[in-house]
Write a structure and sequence with these properties.
Elements lengths: L2 E5 L2 E3 L5 E8 L7 E7 L6 E6 L6 E3 L7 E6 L4 E6 L8 E8 L12 E2 L3 E5 L2
Parallel strand pairs: 2-11
Antiparallel strand pairs: 1-3, 3-8, 4-5, 4-9, 5-6, 7-8, 9-10, 9-11
Amino acid sequence: QLQLVESGGGLVQPGGSLRLSCAASGFRLNSYVISWFRQAPGKEREGVSCISTSGGITNYADSVKGRFTISRDNAKNTVYLQMNSLKPEDTAVYYCAASRTYYFTYSGPYDYWGQGTPVTVSS
C-alpha cells in the first residue's frame, strides 16, 4: 500500500521542541517534493514548509521561519520537521504530502497525504 505516515507529535510546553517524521511506505520518497501542512481547530490548512527532492531547496512559512527546520534522509525514506521554540499557536494537526512538483505556494495537487500527527503546545 502506497502511503505516508507521520509520527512524532505530542504535547509539549511552550518553548519546547518536537521532531516530526514523515515516512513513505510502498514507494521511494526521493522522487518527490515533500511538504508539511498544519491545520488548527477551526482554521484552514496552511503550508508550513517544503523540501526539494535533493534537499537543496527549502521554504518556510513566515510564522515558522527561524524556528522550524525541514530535512530529508532519502536513504531512510523519511523527511523530518524539527520544531523548536514552539508556541501555543503552533498547536495543530500536522500533515505531510508528496508531489512531483515544487509548489512554492502549497497549491498542489499532491499525490500522497499522510493521516496527520497532532501537536499540542500548552503549559
